[in-house]
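Good morning,

Attaching, inline, the backbone tokens for the sequence recovery test we're adding to the shared suite. The designed sequence is right after.
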């Protein structure tokens, strides 16, 4: 019998895919600074905090800016991003998510969101999934971004369960590492080559059942 009591979910790439909106906003910023970023480069920003993403983009463009200017640019990018995500709706929930969450409820498992995004509550509200989580840990509640495990260990603590009783669902390398460092069973959603560190890898929640996950944990 599985000892698992809780499922902890990343938001981006697991429940919704706002990567395209992040890309559009970062690309606009890079273009205004006089250079460009590719979709391939943007892949490396997945699961990385806004501040660290900006540092990577500036390094890519060969720019060194003051902290004050960087704060201003990060805020500008976020404004552009929020313009895009404010138009989101339940139609933006990824395929299979509703069915999977229905199974999670039937199994009596606790749920938490573990996202480094400070916009996670807004996105959950827009897609109508705020009530799907008993705990919501976002960028405003943590001091360290992934791959530090803080976002998931705080989620477990808020749910009143131990890390060994948790399964983390992640699509990013940094997120998978965070879950593993937190002492949790990690399901990677995406490519087995990219997410080799995960305990179980599947293309998406659509291709999984709760039973499959619990069996893999036991």
């Amino acid at each position: 019998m599985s000892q698992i009591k809780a499922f902890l979910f990343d938001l981006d790439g697991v429940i919704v895919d706002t990567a395209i909106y992040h890309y559009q906003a970062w690309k606009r910023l890079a273009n205004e600074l006089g250079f460009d970023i590719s979709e391939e480069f943007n892949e490396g920003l997945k699961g990385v905090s806004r501040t660290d993403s900006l540092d990577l983009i500036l390094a890519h463009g060969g720019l060194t800016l003051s902290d004050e200017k960087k704060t201003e640019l990060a805020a500008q990018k976020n404004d552009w991003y929020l313009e895009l995500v404010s138009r989101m709706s339940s139609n933006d929930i990824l395929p299979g998510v509703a069915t999977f969450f229905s199974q999670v409820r039937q199994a009596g498992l606790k749920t938490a969101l573990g996202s480094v995004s400070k916009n996670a509550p807004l996105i959950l509200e827009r897609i109508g999934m705020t009530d799907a989580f008993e705990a919501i840990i976002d960028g405003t509640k943590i001091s360290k971004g992934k791959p530090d495990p803080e976002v998931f260990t705080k989620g477990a603590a808020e749910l009143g369960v131990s890390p060994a009783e948790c399964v983390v669902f992640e699509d990013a390398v940094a997120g998978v590492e965070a879950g593993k460092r937190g002492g949790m069973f990690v399901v990677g959603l995406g490519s087995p080559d990219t997410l080799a560190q995960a305990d179980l890898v599947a293309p998406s929640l659509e291709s999984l059942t709760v039973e499959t996950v619990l069996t893999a944990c036991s």
